[in-house]
């Protein structure tokens, strides 16, 4: 690589990390704000969910038909099947996700963050700036750089974000050509996000566990449980999208009728407990508040329905909530500290559903403490093996 273009890549990564970090702060803080509004006026807002669904569908039909593919388009570009991601994807996915959360849909935010980062970085890097950047694998490098920055800017887990972007496109292969730029952009975005005071979830787990044979046995059992639940989520999401699409081909009818169903379920099932990100379940899991034995299952089902009928948002934060709440239930059965089991669930259900291994382990260290890395590694190894390459990302490729 020419020195000039090597420096160009470094400068590009710094700038793109900073810009994406600011965008993620805007997206994340607005999402927190609309969540507060929903909690305050829930009884009124939830009944408008079906009508908001029609508005979201109109936005995609009128202005962003190609953008409708979401993460599928990101993966298609990463695999060289598509050449361009329209910039209009960014405002459309941000607004539609805010609307989904404001009116009570059960969804996440990670997919949106990755789409924002990947779209902007790829557009700028393969556009007028390409003459300052290395030519080899430029499309993939700029895409992965933006994906890492988007994830890090929202969650402030830069090392986990780097590994997620490197490993998620093709299972079994790390896209190491993007390592330098992804690292620079990820840490920059995370720093900007922290500097601008975007809320970050972290919980230091104080439990110190000695690695014994009984503990390894428990980690294997709990890893199997989390792996199967992650597979259940990804399998259920894929099948639900296909089934609902065949049952109700008209997209407006589908999101309106589905919105009515989701609104009713959200109200009837503990009056909004399963709306939004699931941050309430995550907090309850680590703060000793009430967790019901069925919390993880209802959050799983409502998130699948919300996304399958056409509402927008990611899957990762709901997966964190599903895993943490299930961990609370499994902890006393297996004789594990509750916060340890919840932390394992937090990362392992996410890893199983996304078919990633390295990123969840490191995210666990960044969020809960690096002293638990051996525990996360063993449990995640088992969970990863139990998902049988099922992923929430339909266009994720498997290296044969």
TrEMBL record:
Q: Which GO terms describe its molecular function?
A: chloride transmembrane transporter activity
Topology relative to the lipid bilayer, per the entry, is: Multi-pass membrane protein
Keyword annotations for this protein, in alphabetical order, are: Membrane, Transmembrane, Transmembrane helix
State its location(s): Membrane
Give Gene Ontology CC terms.
Answer: membrane
- A single Pfam family it belongs to is Voltage_CLC
* Top-level lineage group: Bacteria
Q: Where is it predominantly found?
A: membrane
Q: Where are the transmembrane segments?
A: 7-27, 39-60, 141-166, 178-198, 219-239, 251-270, 291-311, 317-336, 343-363, 369-388
User: InterPro entries, from UniProt?
Assistant: Cl-channel_core (IPR014743), ClC (IPR001807), ClC-type_chloride_channel (IPR050368)
- Which SUPFAM superfamilies does this UniProt record tie to the protein? Clc chloride channel
Report the PANTHER family cross-referenced here.
Answer: CHLORIDE CHANNEL PROTEIN CLC-E (PTHR43427), CHLORIDE TRANSPORTER (PTHR43427:SF12)
Q: Give the protein name, as stated in the record.
A: Voltage-gated chloride channel protein
Upper classification of the organism: Bacteria, Bacillati, Bacillota, Bacilli, Lactobacillales
